[in-house]
Amino acid sequence: MGASLRPCPFCGGSAIMYEHDPYRGEIGGQKQTTILCYGRGCGARIVKATAEEAVQAWNKRKEKENEQ
Questions:
Q1: How far is the CA of 3 from the CAs of 26, 34, 38, 50, 59, in angstroms?
Q2: Cβ pair 32, 49 in contact under 8 A
Q3: 4-9: which pairs have CB atoms within 8 A and are 24 or more residues apart?
Q4: CA-CA distances (angstroms) from residue 37 to 7, 42, 45, 47, 48?
Q5: Distance (Å, rounded) from C-alpha 66 to C-alpha 64?
Q6: Is residue 2 predicted with pLDDT exceeding 80?
């Protein structure tokens, strides 16, 4: 997937995305996608079923009242 990830909403660090099988193939090979902040010990992460869902959730930000 070529989607770009926004900086971490907590520390501003960069993030990485990877797909993994949390059950190691024991339950039908269900994959998950994790986005993890690579900032200095931040550790913020999001886990979703698909890459598209993960990117959408990671990049979502609440708009500030004074921004338009």
A1: 30, 14, 17, 13, 10
A2: yes
A3: 5/35, 5/55, 5/58, 5/59, 6/58, 6/59, 6/61, 8/37, 8/39, 8/42, 8/44, 9/44, 9/61
A4: 8, 7, 6, 12, 15
A5: 6
A6: no
- Per the prediction, the chain carries an average pLDDT of 84
> The tokens of 2 are what?
């070529």
Q: Which amino acid is at 55?
A: V
Alpha-carbon gap, residue 55 to 19, rounded angstroms: 12
pLDDT in tens, 53-68: 999 999 998 776 665 5
Structure-token pair, residue 51: 């890459």
- Bridge partners for 15 per DSSP: 37
Provide the percentage of residues in the chain whose pLDDT is more than 70.
79
